[in-house]
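Please, structure for the following, as C-alpha cells.
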Amino acid sequence: MVTIMKKSWYKSKVFVITGASGDIGSEVCRIFAPLHMKMYLLDLPNPRLDELAKEILSLGAESVETFHVDLLNKEQTVDVIAKIGEKEKFIDILFNNAGIGSRCSITNDGTFEDYRKVMAINVDAIWIVLQTAMPFFSRPAPSKKYPNRKEGQLIFSSSAAGKTGVPYMAAYAMSKSAIIALADSIRLEFKMQNHKVDVITSVAAPADTKFYNTPEMVDWIKKYEKQGFLFKFVKAKDIAKRILKASRKHKKEIYTPRWWWLLGFLFVLSHNLIGNLLIKIEKEKITKSAKIIISYN
C-alpha cells in the first residue's frame, strides 16, 4: 500500500533549494509554492532569482527569501545554510538541485581544472550543504518505539548520464553517478537510525534546458532526438511534477520520463545497447564537424 503525504504536512514547513532560478529549479519552486511552505531560494546573483521569489509568493508560498551564493565558495555556502537553519531551527525539505554540465573527458583533452570544477559544484558542494544542514535537518516525529525519530526529505538532482555514461562527458557522468551513490548511502543510514526521512533521487533524461544552448550541444541534441521516442527531450516542468509526486508518495529513485527505468533492465540484457546508440550519435556529430572544417579550408 502506497502512503501519500497529505498536503497539510507541507504547510509552514521549511523548503531549501540550491540552483533555484535554473530551468528545473524554478519549475520545482512553482509546483511546491501552492503547498504554503517557507521557501528559501539559493543561487548565483541574477535578476531571475528575485523575479522567481515574487512569482512563487503569489502562487501561495507562506514566505520566500533569496540568498545569492556561489557554491564554489565554501565559507559563503556554510554561512548561508547555517543562517537559514539558525533562523528556522528545522529544515524539512532540502533539495540539492544546483549543478553544471560539461563536455569534459579524458580523451578529448579535458583539463583537470575543468574536471574539478564539475565535481566541485555537482558533488563537493552537495557534501558541504548536507554537512552544514544536518544539525537542522528534519524535525522530531517520535513514536513509542522510536522516541528519537525525525522526519524530513532530501531530494537530489541526478541524471540518466549517471546510469549510462556519455561519450565525451565523463566528468559530468561521474558527478551524477556519485550523486546516486551518495543518496543511496544516506538513505540506508537514515533507515538504520529509524528516521522517517525520504531520500529521493531524480534521474532525468536530457531535458530541454539552457544546458544545451551552445552550437555544439544543439547539434548533439538533433542527433540524439532522431533515435526515437525513448530519446525525446523532457520538459523541466515534467521533471518538477515527478519530483512533487515522489515527495508525496515517499519514492526513492524516480525517472523522467517514467519509462526510463528501462535503463537498468536494458543494461541487464545488454550493457552495449544504449552505449552503442550514444556512440553512433557522437560519431555522426564528429563526421559532420569534420565536413564543416573541410569546407572552411
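Residues 154 and 165 are 24 Å apart (CA to CA). The radius of gyration is 20 Å.
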